[in-house]
TrEMBL record:
PANTHER family: PROTEIN AST1-RELATED. Belongs to the zinc-containing alcohol dehydrogenase family. Quinone oxidoreductase subfamily. InterPro entries: ADH-like_N, ADH_Zn_typ-1, ER, GroES-like_sf, Lipid_raft_assoc_Zn_ADH, NAD(P)-bd_dom_sf, Quin_OxRdtase/zeta-crystal_CS. SMART domains: PKS_ER (SM00829). The lineage of its organism: Bacteria, Bacillati, Bacillota, Bacilli, Bacillales. Coiled coil: none annotated. It comes from Alicyclobacillus fastidiosus. Residues 17-335 form the Enoyl reductase (ER) domain. The keyword Zinc applies. It comes from the Bacteria. The keyword Thylakoid does not apply. Keywords: Metal-binding, Oxidoreductase, Zinc. This is Zinc-type alcohol dehydrogenase-like protein. NCBIfam families: adh_fam_1 (TIGR02817).
Length: 339
C-alpha cells in the first residue's frame, strides 16, 4: 500500500522530511479494524512529532491523526463496525498514523462518519472535536444544560484554530456566552461565523477588553494557544472558583499561586490519553464521535475544513506541514485521494 512517512526528523523544507513509500497492508487482529483511507487532515501535533531532532527511526514512522475512510476488514473481536461502514477517527499517538492508503485502528476510538459530509469534510473533524469535547465536558466540567449555563461565560483562547472552531460551536450549544480570541480581521470574522458572541485580541490584556464589553470575568477558560504567554492574563480574567483547561505544553512551570485566592482549578486536555493508556473508558471516544456525527447531520455543528489538497503524497503533506508551521492557518487543511 502507499504511505507517507519518515526515517529522519528534518526541517519541512528538506524533501527527506516526509517521503513516499510502499509498505505491506496490515491485517487486523483483536478489536482492530482495517480502514481504507479516503481523506486525512493535518494538525499541529503532526508538525511537533516531525520537528527536527537527533533521532533516526529503524523502521518507517507514519504520522497522521485524522482519518475518514471505509472499513475494509475487521478483527475477530470487533462488535462495533463491519466492512463497508464509513468511519472517522483520530487514532493513537503510540501507533502508526493514518497517512497511508490502509490503516489499523482500535474500533473503540472510531466513530460513524456523518452521512451529510464528504470524506474530506469529515476528516477535518475528529482530533479537534475530541479535544474540544473532552476539554469542555470532561476537564472544564461544563454542563450540557443551557438552563444551567444561562449566566455563565467561557473564554476560548485561539478560537480561530481547528480546536477553537469546534469548541466555539459546542460551547454555544450549551448556552454559554462565548468570548473567542483572535488577532487578525480574517480570523476574527471566522470566530464570529462559528458562533462566538464576542471576540477580543489575545495579544492584549484580557480583563480591560472584557470590562469594555461589560463582561468582567469568565467562569471557564479553554487555552488553545501559548499557555505560557497567556497564563497571567488568564488568571486575572478567571472568576472565583473558575476553571482553566489548556492543551498546550509549557516551557516553564506555571505559577499556580495565581489561582489560590480564587480557589481556581487548572486541568490539562490531551485527546490521546485514553488510547495511549487504554483506559477503562476508552470507548467514550467512540460514543462522542457518534454524538458529534448526530450533531453534524442535524446541522448543529459544521465542518471546519478550509483547504483541500489532492492527491495524498509526500509533496502535498510537506506543503500542509509548512502551512501549519506558518502559524497563520484558519480552520483545517485536508488531503484526499492517494495518487
Amino acid at each position: 500500500m502507499k504511505a507517507v512517512g519518515l526515517y529522519r526528523y528534518l526541517p519541512i523544507e528538506d524533501e527527506e522530511s516526509l517521503i513516499d513509500v510502499e509498505v505491506e497492508i496490515p491485517v487486523p487482529t483483536g478489536r482492530d479494524i482495517l480502514v481504507e483511507v479516503k481523506a486525512i487532515s493535518v494538525n499541529p501535533v503532526d508538525t511537533k512529532v516531525r520537528s527536527p531532532k537527533d533521532k533516526v527511526e529503524p523502521e518507517l514512522k507514519i504520522l497522521g491523526w485524522d482519518v475518514a475512510g471505509v472499513v475494509a476488514s475487521v478483527g475477530p473481536d470487533c462488535t462495533l463496525f463491519q466492512p463497508g461502514d464509513s468511519v472517522f477517527y483520530a487514532g493513537s499517538i503510540t501507533r502508526q498514523g493514518g497517512n497511508s492508503s490502509f490503516h489499523l485502528v482500535d474500533e473503540r476510538i472510531v466513530g460513524r462518519m456523518p452521512s451529510r459530509l464528504s470524506f474530506a469534510e469529515a476528516a477535518a473533524l475528529p482530533l479537534t472535536s475530541i479535544t474540544a469535547w473532552e476539554g469542555l465536558y470532561d476537564r472544564l466540567g461544563v454542563s450540557d444544560d443551557p438552563a444551567v449555563n444561562r449566566d455563565k461565560r467561557i473564554l476560548i483562547v485561539g478560537a480561530a484554530g481547528g480546536v477553537g472552531s469546534i469548541a466555539t460551536q459546542l460551547a454555544k450549544l450549551t448556552g454559554l456566552t462565548v468570548i473567542g480570541t483572535a488577532s487578525r480581521s480574517a480570523s476574527e470574522q471566522w470566530v464570529k461565523d462559528h458562533g462566538a458572541d464576542f471576540v477580543i485580541n489575545h495579544y492584549e490584556p484580557f480583563v480591560p477588553q472584557l470590562k469594555a464589553l461589560n463582561l468582567d470575568h469568565v467562569d471557564y477558560i479553554f487555552c488553545l494557544n501559548a499557555t505560557d504567554d497567556h497564563w497571567r492574563k488568564m488568571a486575572d480574567a478567571l472568576a472565583p472558583q473558575g476553571v482553566i483547561c489548556s492543551i498546550v505544553e509549557t516551557k516553564a512551570p506555571l505559577d499556580l499561586n495565581l489561582l489560590k485566592s480564587k480557589s481556581g482549578t487548572y486541568a490539562w486536555e490531551y485527546m490521546f490519553t485514553r488510547a495511549m493508556y487504554e483506559t477503562d473508558d476508552m470507548i467514550e471516544q467512540h460514543h462522542l464521535l457518534n454524538q458529534l456525527a448526530d450533531l453534524v447531520d442535524a446541522g448543529r455543528v459544521k465542518t471546519t475544513l478550509t483547504e483541500v489538497l489532492s492527491p495524498i503524497h509526500a509533496a502535498n503533506l510537506r506543503k500542509a506541514h509548512a502551512m501549519i508551521e506558518s502559524g497563520s492557518t484558519i480552520g483545517k487543511i485536508v488531503l484526499e485521494n492517494f495518487s
